[in-house]
Amino acid sequence: MYVRVKGEGPKARVYVMESVRRGSKVVGVVREKLGHLEDLERDDPNALEKLRAKYRETKLAEATRQAKRRSELLTMSGMVENIPARVLRYGHYIVKSVLDDLGLKPKLDYLKRTKYPRCQFNVSAIAYFLIALRALAPSSNKHAYDIQGKFLGNPLGGTDLHQAYRVLDILGERKDEILSGVNNAVTKETNRNFRMVFFDVTNCYFEAPYNDEEYAEMRAAREGRTLTEEEREAARFRMQGPSKEHRFDLPLVSVAMVIDNEGIPVDFDIYSGNNSEYNTLPVAIEALREKYGIEETIIVADRGLNSLANLKDANNRGFGFLVGQRVSNLPNEQKKAMVDPNGWTSVSHDLKFKAVPFKKKGYVNGVLEEVDCTLVLTFSEARKKRDLHELDAAIEYAQRCVNEQAEMPESRRYWTELVETSSKANCAVRLKQKVIDARRARCGYAGIVYRNPPSGKTELTPEEIVHAYHELVQIEDCFKIMKSNLNLRPMFLRTPLRIRGHILVCVLSLIVLRLLARRLRGMESPLPINRIIEGMEDAKVIAVHSGESEEWLYIRAGEESGLYRDSDKLTIEELAIRHRTSISDTAAVLAAAGLECPPVFCDRNQLARAIRTKFKSDADAVPSVVYRAAEMEREDAARQAS
Description:
It is a single chain. The chain is 46% helix and 19% strand. By secondary structure, it is α+β, with helices and mostly antiparallel strands. The strands form four sheets. It has a nine-stranded mixed β-sheet, with helices on both faces. The protein has a four-stranded antiparallel β-sheet with strand order 4-16-17-18. It is globular. The protein starts with a strand and ends with a helix.
């Protein structure tokens, strides 16, 4: 507490104040009104200074008392052999803080109250923990339920495993409503505009022996009947199809995602694993119009989605497009422009571009059509070096196959177009030198097809087009993070609703990570996603029980994953200096979430204030099983003493 004077002159009043955290801010709350300053100083001119000294002494005495009590607790704790200290992780409170900023809890509470009134469990608490675990300990729901005792605050206290799966159903069913509210909050924080949106498709596999159609056939066989064609069509969801991870033996689903220009997901949808990714773009465009009221934007996608039908559909709906274009498929006129040394503009020492008119041709519903576009050709020395390396590897493998007269594979590979086969037997006989020379001439070049929205309100310069297409790596990075860091796949779920809920959990976790990364950049402490995750993983306290009382002591701990980062460049002395002088990743991530590092030694109230939560008692902070074990140990000690 402290003394504060409000007002001036005869109106000046004296108050006893206390600092209290409310949300992300610390505010002063009036605890006592001492009256007018004028009246206090009438009897004693030094009254104000004495009051301030009194409360300073009170504050110091309280700090000394707490330090002494912590020391006593530590001394007593060492005497309790049957109750070991517990390492508890609190990184999920970082995720909770960001999700609170996004308004997710009120949305989930509202949905539970209005749509699922019969739910007797805490939907928002379970959802928050599942979202946090995607970053902190990605695994199955079953494993998430098993490891809840490793986390501070009993995050799943009082719930069972079935309820955790039920929450996935709720999330999957209300995906659009949830993402709509989250996107509104993200837009307010980031001043997001939809001048451009990035779109891509990936697929995820399931560790399952059969696809959904086969499961349906087996169920029908047990019932003594055969499936109708309508039933077969309805059952086809987890199906084998073209796998980007070469898991052709396992069932898949396709995931189409839209992100903004900062790499923050906007929306996603899922499709059957045997569905062509070409069919996903029109659906996503229409969803952007209906859900978010986006009437005009530029869709940025890779060349895998470059079909004339998709581009015409986007333009007819009022959207522009910017997609990759294979330079090997260009007409001769554009190929000549590509190798012509004139007309190029340098963007950097390594990258240059050239813009030329282009008519994109293709078949739409069996009819040859065309669209007028701009073709932006780019050339990069780094890309040329990479392309040449890949070509040389393909030539080496193809030459080995020719020497061995090897049989050609059924599917097309990266080297098969370089080899001529025998007319009598399907085996490699010689290299196609003209094809090799043509591929070598194209090394380093790439193409981008661009068209403005029909309204003409949004236009990009060629430089912006090149930069925007290079930003497409962000959505590839999104899928990489979701698959590698958040364990999007393999999935161990069966129903479409539950699968959608699982993917939503991964997307919300990714949104949290992207916002933390953005905030850290604003604080001039930028960290990559993997170090943000490490910082959250390192957020730990050690809970120690006194043994003789009900009190627990919490000691801040951390593994400091990056202690030896750059050890190949720095000496131990330099690493030690960096460790002493730099802020830890955990502290930086806590600050980005509006939280603080707990004191090294603290009680539950100090710990709760640091991470913006409340613990009514230590039973709310320590895992229920551990807390009850401590109670039993204390009861046994009391019986033995009596």
